[in-house]
Design brief:
The N and C termini lie far apart (50 Å). β8 (213-217) and β9 form a beta hairpin. The longest helix has 19 residues, at 65-83. The chain is 28% helix and 27% strand. α7 runs antiparallel to α8. The chain has 367 residues and is an alpha+beta fold. It is globular and about 60 Å long.
Length: 367
Amino acid sequence: MLRKRIMILLTAAAVSAALALTGGCSVKKTAGQQTESQTEDKNDRSAEIFSMGTVFSARVIGQDAQSILEEADDAIYKADDLISYRKEDSLTADFNSQHKADVSPISDLMQQTLDISKKSKGAFDPTVLPLTQVWQFDRMQEEDFDVSSMKVPDQASIDQALEHVDYKKLDFDNKTGLLSTSDPDQKLELGAVGKGFAIDQAMSVIREKKAKGALISAGSSIGLMGVKEDGSSFTVALRDPRGDEGDYIGLFHTTDCTISTSGDYERYFEYKGKRYHHILDPHTGYPSDSGLMQVTILCSSGSLGDALSTACFALGLDEGMKLAKEYNVLAIFVDNDRHIWYNNTGLSDIFEFTGKDSGYTLSEYNK
């Protein structure tokens, strides 16, 4: 397997401009990033690696930062090896070919995934892959795929795929780790929680090695721990869902959490003047039409945040807020009318609203 380490950056100056990360997009790059040949700070190391079809940007601060960073990178690769259905020896590939698999190495992740599927009443469903393939959203990560060729599938194809999308057909024994299904055409796909899971695994290594601080970004999923070299917290930008990639509507000043965002701008195509995004409704077979543009979840687990941001987006404002409350997480919802809703007054302590000039309003959700 080819694993690409895109670049190793060795100084804090090299990544200072990239700390304002954009939830739901790639890390913003700046000109003049420093490489190994330039001045290095051994206590502040950064790297970018390619895994799970995206770029992971990782920064570790503290003694032995480079060795910790390398172990964190390895943890991300191992997470990909475990859960990517595209890899022959992964747990999901085993399940998809044999209709059963021992998934005990990811028992906690599997149980969490099924719990959220149940509590969201199927708005989040790990068996959605047949539907994703019909729409061809699974191919958008392929370098040679022509997005302009995408179109709305015919109803018969959608209906046929929907027959195999149902998490309730999965049988999971948490004691033995055995996952099975009664439907031989059902397929498991954990991409909706994959980046968060990989970040969790990497952060576990970083905490174990007692780094002073760390930041890992995989586009729409971000993990934060500790503080920067000067003792300050990290700053993460919340993308403007209707702006350009570098535009944002708020800033989080926080640490020791994960930030997961789902939005209708991440992967989409336009067909006959209408936008179709990748967050599919497992009940209708079409992109979710919930009245939302974006959902962001802040919590202690990247995989939990990833699953909840997807589920809440599909559920819509009211039902999504109920689910966020049930899991006791911080949530920010952006609706189609550019209203930004937050579910906890504590968010005002860490969220700096900057979207007024772009037509957004900010309000606490009180229903």
